[in-house]
Design a protein that fits this description.
alpha+beta, four-stranded mixed β-sheet
Length: 179
């Protein structure tokens, strides 16, 4: 899958990341937060080891979907507030390399798993294929050329009326729930 990396001349350029990434239309893989846990679920020790393991876990999910790190449009990295982001960056270079992925780094008070110092999420472009794959076990249903939209008004009187645009299925569900 070919990604287009955007680095406007009006912004600072850094070889480690892109300011934006354009991914072609098609299937998208969302990799949930990966911590520095090994195959048995044990958390590895230290920021460098956890960062490297979290990225290896992301790579494993990508591989399962038939993708590589080069297909990743965006990484979101959560760091425990107590750690130095530069130490995590240095540790990531061995596993991730210098790919110019769009990156957001957030320092958080705590991650979901006790003792975790880093969490990594990824968004990858998988392409236009509707073939069966581990990431797409069911065949894709072609979209109708013009999906129907309905307007549902709720509330009483002009001040409290709320307008909702719904698809046909959601409209039927809304009607059933109202009466």
């Amino acid at each position: 899958m070919s990604l287009t990396h955007l680095n406007p001349t009006s912004l600072h350029r850094n070889p480690a990341f892109s300011q934006g990434v354009v991914a072609p239309a098609g299937r998208t893989l969302y990799v949930g937060e990966q911590n520095g846990t090994d195959a048995e679920g044990a958390l590895v020790d230290g920021l460098a080891a956890q960062t490297a393991q979290a990225l290896r876990n992301v790579l494993a999910v990508l591989e399962e979907a038939g993708a590589t790190a080069d297909d990743v449009a965006k990484l979101t990295i959560y760091l425990d507030a107590s750690v130095d982001a530069n130490d995590a960056f240095r540790a990531s270079a061995e596993v991730w390399g210098m790919r110019p992925t769009a990156v957001t780094v957030l320092k958080v008070a705590a991650l979901g798993r006790g003792g975790a110092l880093v969490g990594v999420e990824a968004v990858a472009a998988l392409g236009r294929s509707a073939e069966h794959s581990p990431a797409s076990p069911r065949p894709r249903v072609p979209a109708s050329p013009r999906p129907r939209k309905y307007v549902l008004l709720s509330g009483f009187g002009p001040e409290s009326a709320q307008k909702h645009v719904l698809s046909g299925t959601r409209m039927r569900r809304a009607r059933r729930s109202q009466g």
